[in-house]
Structures are given as C-alpha cells and as structure tokens.
C-alpha cells in the first residue's frame, strides 16, 4: 500500500502515460471505443478499491494537487479560446443546459415518489441538497443543507451518492463521446454552427507558426500555476465579503476572466498550451478517480440505486428532448455534466470534444451555481409531498 503522497501522484501520472502511450503505439481499435481517458478513470477507481494507496495518508497530496492543477489546467485551456466566437453558439446551448436542469429535477421527484418508503420519510431533505449539487455545485449543496436544516447522518448518504454515482456518470459520458456521430445522425442534429466555430478556432491554432520552445513552455507552466495560486487567494478574500458564491466559484470566475483576456493577447499564441493542458487534464482525471472507491457502493445500496435511477431518468428525458429539438451529443453531454459535475468536470468533457470549446463548459457550469440553490430547495419541497 502506498502511503507516500509523492509516490501516489507519481503512480497516477505514470498510469496515464502508459495508457496514452499504448494507444499511440498499438493503434488498437479497442481504444476507439474505450479511450485512454475512460480506462484511466476506471483503472484508477479499481486501484483505489483494492487499497493501492492509503486514503488518509495520501489525502494531503490529493488536496494540494487537485485544485491547484485543475485551475492551472483551465487557464491553459482557455488561453486557446476566443470567447467572442464561442458565445456565437447562442440560445441553443442555453436551451440544452436548462433542458438538462429540468430533467434532473424530474429525475429526483420521480425517484423519490417511487423509493420514498425505502429511503425514509425525511430523505427528501438530503435528496434536495444533492439536487442542489447536481444543478450547481458543492456550495449549493451546503446552502440547501443550511436552508432545510439537514442532519449530518442524512447528508452522509447524499455525499455517498454524489461520490459514486457522479463518478460513474462522468465515466459514462466520456465513453459516450465515441458515439457522437451516430447520436447526431439519429437526432438529425445540425452541428454546422458548432463545427464551424470549432474548426475556425482549431484552424487559428494550427495557423500559428510559432514552435514550442523551452522559454514558452516555462512561461506557460509558471503563468498558469501563478494564476491558479493568485486566483485562489483572491477568491478566498472575495468570499469573505461576498459569501453568496463559494470560494471555488469565485476562483473559477477569476481564472476564466484572466485566461480569456490572455487569449486575445499575444500570450494566447504561445505554442505549447494545448500539450500542457492535456497533461494537466489527465492528472486531474486520475486524481478525481483515485478517491472513488467501488467499495462505497455497499454502504448505502438503496441510496446509490436511487442515484442511478435519477441519472437514468435524466438521461432518458434528455435523449427524448434531443430527438424532439434535434440537439447534438456535445450540447447534451456538456449540459448534463455542467449541471451534475460543475466546473470541475464540464470543461473536461468539453475538452474531450475539442479544447477550443472548454469555455462553453465553464460558462454553462457557472450558470448552474446561479440556479442550484433555489432549484434544490424547490425540488425538495415538491418531494416533501410524497413523504
């Protein structure tokens, strides 16, 4: 069992390197259906389950690395995004986001109506808090917990669902990316606008004649880490005087603003940001999966099953709406994860389609923080009628 934090991080990064290298060297068709990012997520969860590392001993390394690298990754990814062009995607993306939000609300209400006798009379409170998280983020969950006066015991069940079910859903959406062409054909979705924006941004990146240099890489790494550090410090300070958004939200807002400003300056044309952001991307994915043990599924099986029911209902409704309104896979997937995963996951899924679209994931996820608290409270009070 690994007890050293540095060894723990080293193993995760090396596992990512092996999987990516295997895809490049072998060119197996297997990787077309199960890409390295999904394998990394799955294998890391398995290693966590079998106790490859001590969760308590490696927790400090995880805490230090995850957020710091995540914000640096967002900075590097957004440096390649021209927000003026991405926002031209317009109301279709917003419609997809709210369609995901409504389907999540219906999923919670329908599941509790079916499972309330097994979950308990007061389970609507904990599920309401979870709904706040799955519409927004952890800050919304805490806000709903305070508003509904939820006990620590009930919140424990919500946190188990948020950990296990969310991890599986992220892995499923990352896996489903490979079926985007078939899905878009089935829904008869027009991706012309999306493809046009994506192609234009990618062509602009390719047309950059600058070559990767040592000085450029060092500047990008140092700059991204500095933005991550400063943004977190300022975010904490702002939270002290403006607590209506949590510290993570303020930090993401600051990183986004700084990076998008940098994207329209010569900094955005420095070669190497794509490669570095992908390195950070795989590190973040490995870290997130390393804390999701499959053994937790035995702790509260009824609650975990209920969580999967919520996700299944959400997914089915979203697919039906995609068919009716001819929505594409990118819109549905990122809208779903912008709600359920927030700023930590939506940009990762968006980046899996194209790094040029990361800002779409960030903006949609930030929108969730606005509606998450009230959405959770409203859904909780509707569920109360079935108690």
Describe the protein's architecture and organization.
With 387 residues, the protein is mostly helical. Helices cover 78% and strands 0% of the residues. It contains 18 helices and no strands. Helix 6 (91-119) packs parallel to helix 18, helix 9 (152-176) packs across helix 15 (301-325) and helix 16 (329-340) crosses helix 18. The longest helix has 29 residues, at 91-119. The chain is globular.
**Residue share in helices?**
over 70%
On the 0-100 scale, what is the average pLDDT? 84
Radius of gyration: 20 Å
% residues in beta strands: under 5%
Question: Low-confidence stretches at least 5 residues in length (pLDDT < 50)?
Answer: none
* Structural class category: mainly alpha
Specify the biggest β-sheet: none
Helix and strand arrangement:
Blueprint: H1 5-26, H2 30-33, H3 36-49, H4 55-78, H5 83-86, H6 91-119, H7 123-135, H8 138-148, H9 152-176, H10 180-187, H11 192-206, H12 214-241, H13 247-263, H14 273-289, H15 301-325, H16 329-340, H17 346-353, H18 358-384
